Amino acid sequence: MTPVIEVTNLRKIYKVGNEKVYALNNVNLEIYPGEVCCIVGQSGSGKSTLLNQLAGLEKPTTGQVKILGKEISAMTENQLAKFRQENLGFIFQSYNLLPSMTAVENVALPLMFKGVSLQKRTQLAKAALAQMGLSRRANHKPTEMSGGQQQRVGIARAFVSHPKVVFADEPTGNLDSYTTKKVLYQMLSMAYQQGITFIMVTHEPELAACADRVITLLDGVVQSNHLLPVQEIEHNRAELFRELEETQE
Amino acid sequence: MKVTDILRLARENLRRRKGRTALTVIGVVVGTCAIVVMISLGLAMSQSIESMLASWGDLTQIQIYNYVYGSTDAPTLDDEMLASIKALEHVTAVTPYYQARNVNATIVAGKNDRYNSYFYETYGLYPDAVEALGIQLISGNYLTETTDVGKGKIPVLVGENFAYSFYDSTKDWNSSKYQVYQGQTDALGNPVDPFVNVEKDKMWIRLQTWDDDGNEKHEDYQMVVVGVMASDYAKGYFTDSGIVMRLADLKRLEQAYEKLAGKRSSGSASYMVGVNGGGMVAQQDNGYENVYVKVDSVDHVEEVEEIIQSYGYQTNSMVQTREAMQAQVAQTQFILGGLAAISLFVAALNIANTMTMAIYERTREIGVMKVLGCELGKIRTLFLVEAGGIGFLGGVIGVILSLIISFIMNNFALIAAVLGFGGAGMGDLSSIFGMYTDGSSAASVIPIWLILFALAFATLVGVLSGIMPAVRATKISALEAIRHE
Structural domain of residue A176, as residue ranges? Predict the structure, then answer.
């Protein structure tokens, strides 16, 4: 199977004063289609930097990042924009919804950039919100919603255009533990339903325990990169989502 | 991303910051208004100057002066020469204004030739040129080569007030009954008719001469009025009180006079004798002294005039005067427009400032848009559309306001009267607005093109002031922006 994401000899060096800081040092990775992948590590281990590199938000100092066989580290900003429209979704820690727009308008935003008509994209956005259980919040502005609701709007936005890969940077970082589970559950089920490769940065071990692949970073170096056994994942997930499924039933 | 989406987003963004958008728009309104009003004043000024010039003389007319003192290199200005001038491009009519100055004649009418008028305001023209020169008739017909009013009779056009030029030769010259003036009324206030009804009464041109013994000899030629000219000083005084006849008729009268007086025909109108180096030099006969050329439009006058001058003739037209006055108007307009431009420039700075502020406020928003796949060009366009929108909105309001101001200026007296204003203060104001006009024409003129120009210009100013902020917006790092708290 060809990997969705292929990272070779990736280096990212920041200059702080006269000193060079190796945020990422010679990273090599392969992530395969449909995988749920967690990047974990301590603060300052370079996990957010890695995610930014994978998503093409930052250019590497050396090395290359390929997504779907395309070298995104060599693309221009406009090529990247096009590529993101077609293939990528994003979920942010601080939600990053546009405050002037309603939930539906926010969800429809990626479709608007793609050139989908107003009617069509509103319809798709409403369906995505319904999947998140937010139908009744469709015409609310972000300021009128709780953090969990905002993040679910964010998830709907990331998945609405059926991307190939969705990136999430500490998506539950601002949420309480119950909401965290709920949000995580929804992200994972969306990813599995649509067969989307899902890459998430987190520092919560119990989230990482639900991933197919866990990549651990330390000081900019990949310390471990392994697939979890299927049985273990299932067990962990059942454990994590038990109360959630109980309440939903 | 569709154009309609960009427009919708831009509108939404402007609406979101209503207060600031409104203030910025007001700046553009003031600028647009200043420019439109200033230009409209300038336009009104140049219109009134055009009409003033037109009242001074015909703008499409060139006069050739051919009064020769001594000798000249210019070719003889004869019928042949006139025909070749007539053949020039843009020339619609040519005619000499021929005056038989050496003819001594009087116009006589009435019983016992009681009423007399003067002959010296009599011109011989090519008959076909009269109408082309723009000489209007208030009654009757123009002369033609074939006009025939009977053997020996001379068809003429007379000026509108020619009838009032007759005087009663039986009265003393300082008697109140000596002449009837135009507009004269009797004791009851009724208008007094002139002595002669030029269209009904018979009139004669009396050629008079005296022999060596002082005996008068005369010959009468009846003249028949075929048309009455409308008085127009721009065409000449003769349209008011003179006579126009066919050039050939006038020349015939001249010959008849010379025969009567026993003088030999010189065949020339140039009769002066020049003094050259102390000696007497025979005056060179150089054809017609005074010729008028009519050109099809004001724009071609200069061109035709230059050709005629290149033949060696002296000419005169309103073009030079007009150009000087237009240059002055242009200068005034330039100053007024410059002042107005300053206020629009300030408005442009305002727009740039507002849009730059918007970038800082919307850094995160721009970052999110980029991460979600919005192309740089679309972000730039969005900002330009917002800035252009401010300009356009300001332009629209500014134009409406200018139309109102223009209306007030043009109808100031009326409005003041309706509102019951009055007094010296208001009078002063109206005289300021009336300053550039001759009173009757508008103080401010706003043609459609000015409205369209103002709208386009205001929008352009908006877009231009938006360029720098728009480019900056595209340069925002998406990563920085989404971290921005």
Answer: 5-248
Nearest to A60 by CA among A35, A39, A88, A29: A29
Q: How many domains does chain B have?
A: 2
Q: Are A55 and A41 in contact (CB under 8 A)?
A: no
Whether the per-residue pLDDT at A140 is higher than 90: the answer is: yes
**CATH number of the domain that A190 lies in?**
3.40.50.300
Exposure class string for A29-68: b at 16+ Cβ within 10 A, else e: bbbeebbbbbbbbeeebbbbbbbbbbbbbbebeebebbbb
> ipTM of this model?
0.91
- Nearest by Cα to B85 from B363, B354, B312: B312
> What is the rounded CA–CA span in Å between residue B107 and residue A240?
128
Residue B421: pLDDT band (50, 70, 90) is low
Chain B partners of A113 at a C-beta cutoff of 8 Å? Answer: 1, 369, 372-375, 378
The domain of B192 spans 61-318
Sheet with A19-31: strands ordered across: A19-31, A5-16, A62-67, A70-71
B100 and B238 assigned to the same domain:
yes
Q: Which of B270, B287, B318 is the last residue of a domain?
A: B318
- B385 to chain A, minimum CA–CA distance in Å? 17
Which tens digits make up the pLDDT trace of B379-406? 999 999 999 999 999 999 999 999 999 9
For chain A, the C-alpha Rg in angstroms (whole number) is: 18
Sign for the pseudo-dihedral over CA of B358, B363, B368, B373:
positive
**Distance, CA of B397 to chain centre:** 33
Interface size, chain A vs chain B, as Cβ–Cβ contacts under 8 Å: 63
Å from B18 to nearest chain A CA? 13
Q: What is the mean pLDDT of residues B215-220?
A: 86
The one-letter amino acid at B354: T
Q: By the CB < 8 Å criterion, does B480 face chain A?
A: no
Tell whether B81 and B200 lie within a shared domain: yes
